[in-house]
């Protein structure tokens, strides 16, 4: 049996609420879009994709390795941005450059490559997706000026292996393994 998974940093409820508030402004200024469910807001460290159930143990051990000597750290929101695909956009909130996050990502990537998972070809650009296939009513650059992103601190003390699944037609991200930093 196949299961669709990724490795992520999950957020506390107040961070999800903050992101949801930003998302509401985007919705009000959009013609249409596929907007992320509030409960699904997260920061992807590594998208894995479909794997056999027995592969989960290797993924859990990989997470254990990166959390063993790691310690909690803080991230800061930086800006709202988008990846443009024709006239539609993937809209996100980006994070300020963080050496600890980059090192964590690189370490995880290297461990997973040794386990046979392909290395991501794109540069790691940490972001939280707010919506996909978003079509705006007006110029996105104007909207960026309207939405003020606070440099709010996001405390990171764990990494999660997440399952991406549909339940009653609704996309849900379910933590199937959570590992806290050991120090």
Please provide a brief summary of the model.
The protein has 183 residues and is α+β, with helices and mostly antiparallel strands. It has 4 helices and 9 strands; from the N terminus they run E-H-E-E-H-E-E-H-E-H-E-E-E.
Outline the structure in words:
A 5-stranded antiparallel β-sheet has the order 2-6-5-4-7, covered by helices on one side. It has a 4-stranded antiparallel β-sheet with strand order 3-1-8-9. The protein has 4 helices and 9 strands; from the N terminus they run βαββαββαβαβββ. It has helices at residues 13-28, 56-68, 99-114, 140-146, and strands at residues 2-10, 30-35, 42-52, 73-85, 88-95, 127-136, 153-156, 158-167, 170-180. With 183 residues, it is α+β, with helices and mostly antiparallel strands. The radius of gyration is 17 Å and the shape is globular. A hairpin with a 2-residue loop joins β8 and β9. α2 packs antiparallel against α3. The mean pLDDT is 94. The chain has a single domain (2-180), classed as Cyclic phosphodiesterase (Cyclic Phosphodiesterase, Chain: A, Alpha-Beta Complex).
Describe this protein with a few key phrases.
183 residues; Cyclic Phosphodiesterase, Chain: A; five-stranded antiparallel sheet; four-stranded antiparallel sheet; 28% helix; EC 3.1.4.58; RNA 2',3'-cyclic phosphodiesterase
């Amino acid at each position: 049996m196949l299961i669709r998974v990724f490795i992520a940093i999950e957020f506390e409820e107040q961070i999800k609420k903050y992101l949801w508030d930003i998302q509401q402004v985007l919705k009000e200024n959009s013609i249409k879009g596929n907007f992320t469910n509030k409960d699904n807001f997260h920061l992807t460290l590594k998208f894995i994709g479909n794997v056999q159930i027995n592969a989960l143990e290797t993924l859990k051990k990989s997470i254990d390795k990166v959390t063993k000597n790691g310690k909690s750290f803080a991230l800061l929101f930086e800006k709202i941005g988008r990846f443009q695909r024709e006239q539609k956009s993937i809209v996100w909130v980006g994070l300020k450059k963080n050496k600890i996050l980059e090192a964590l990502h690189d370490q995880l990537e290297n461990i997973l490559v040794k386990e046979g998972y392909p290395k991501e070809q794109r540069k790691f650009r940490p972001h939280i997706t707010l919506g996909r296939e978003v079509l705006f009513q007006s110029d996105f650059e104007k909207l960026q000026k309207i939405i003020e992103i606070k440099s709010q601190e996001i405390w990171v003390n764990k990494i999660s292996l997440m399952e991406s699944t549909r339940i009653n037609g609704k996309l849900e991200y379910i933590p199937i393994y959570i590992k806290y930093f050991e120090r």
